[in-house]
Amino acid sequence: MKHSIPVEQCGHHGAAMAAAVQACVHCGFCLPTCPTYQVMGEEMDSPRGRITLMKQVLEGKQPLETALPHVDACLGCLSCETACPSGVQYRDLISPFRAWAEPQRERPRMERMRRWMLMNVLPYRWRMAVAVRLGLMARPFREVLPKALGPMFDLLPRRLPKREVLRDLYEAKGERRARVALLTGCSQQVLAPEINAATIRVLQSQGVEVVVPRRQECCGALAWHVGDEARAVKSAKANVAAFPTDVDAILTNAAGCGSTLHEYPLIMGDEAKAFAAKVQDVAQFLDALGFRVPDKERKVTVVMQDACHLLHGQRVQSAPRRLLAKFPGVTIREVADPELCCGSAGSYNLEHPEVAAELGRRKAETLLAAKADVCVTGNIGCLMQLRFHLGVRLRVTHTMVLVDEYLRDLG
Ligand code: SF4
Ligand code: SF4
Fold it and tell me: What is the mean pLDDT of the chain?
């Protein structure tokens, strides 16, 4: 698209935003794969519509306020990137635009409070644990509490899992084949600590030594996706400093975190390039390493729910399937709408509960139609969202938890 964006006046992401706008040829191939376009049916809530809106705002031809509702409603799922034949890097536009717009906008008081809560609670484990405990205590009284708290209650687990403290180092079983560092995530370690425990056991079983850097912190995804650039930069710098350089890979088991770690060079600059080059999803890493499984059979049918930030954000699709397919007796089924987001998308289901709930309902139906025994996904946010919408109708777990169960059952 031809543009007249004054790049120098648009901050340090001006050139990246302009390049993304320029690459768009307005073809509309991305529209059918955009979850918000599917639910809302408006051009302005499609990738093409949003790109045009952001372009016009950056050019000074449209007031920011008119574009914000549509920019805010974007899930950041990056499905449009996968669908785009012109290679538009939508991620180079949406988060930088939000960061550029944030200082210029006036948010209502309630919204400011909610954002403050999100930014100051979710990324910190002990605060998150306290908040979950308080939420569980308050949940029976939700009818008399403000309606705005409803989505938060919906996503709470049935109970707070037992706190697990991870060691700094886990040795490889048998001959050491690799040494990695693991990002353990912030809310994941509070809401589902079994995911990191399973990931570490699986890695150890494959001859991988696992370092858990003590000074690591939240990856910064939450801040980056809602335009809080200063916080995102702070998290990126802290993690780049905290992770050792003498490892073969930096692993994540949460798709949203992994995608953000890959974006560190965009967030904090070229000094993060070496760090980002080492980042891999754990399934991708194990697949490349050569995954070894016991030669025994356990029959199970698995339906895959690709997390958007794995499928679109990191283009990892076949590795978790290849991993599971190695187990004798595993049948893998696919959902009818694999490219579509489940509606989780970080804090999206707290900020846009209606759209998130509609997407969650739709995804639950397509997953059930696959008639599987278990649904696996590679992201804590998707896991919580799917568990809420599927309830007891289908078990939902993390890919690494299922792999760990298999190895322990068959080993
Ligand atoms: S990131 Fe997702 S929700 Fe946003 S425009 Fe692209 S496809 Fe639509
Ligand atoms: S598919 Fe790509 S080029 Fe076509 S409208 Fe969407 S973003 Fe633009």
Answer: 93
Residue range 169-287 in CATH 3.40.1590: no
Query: Is the CATH code 3.40.50.2300 the one for domain 7-104?
Result: no
H helices of 245-352, where?
Answer: 255-262, 264-268, 273-277, 282-289, 308-311, 318-325, 348-351
Q: Residue 406 corresponds to which tokens in the numbers above?
A: 């298999």
What's the pLDDT tens digit per position in 107-162?
988 888 888 888 898 888 889 999 989 989 988 888 887 777 777 787 788 888 88
CATH fold for domain 294-410 = Rossmann fold (3.40.50)
pLDDT given for residue 35 in this prediction: 96
Q: Residue 99's pLDDT is what?
A: 94
Pocket test for ligand 2, best of 27, 34, 78, 82 (most atoms within 8 A of CB): 27
Quote the ligand 1 centre to 140 CA distance (angstroms): 35
- What ranges do the domains of the chain cover? 7-104, 109-155, 169-287, 294-410
**Beta strand residue intervals within 86-226, DSSP E:** 169-170, 178-183, 208-211
Could you tell me the two tokens for 362? 């739709």
Determine whether the shortest distance from the Cβ of 78 to ligand 2 is under 6 A. no
Which strand (E) or helix (H) includes residue 103?
A: none
Sheet harboring 279-281: ordered strands across?
169-170, 208-211, 178-183, 249-252, 279-281
Which residue puts its alpha carbon closest to atom 4 of ligand 1? Answer: 74
Please tell me the predicted confidence (pLDDT) of residue 279: 98
* CA-based nearest residue to 278, from 254, 301, 307, 246: 246
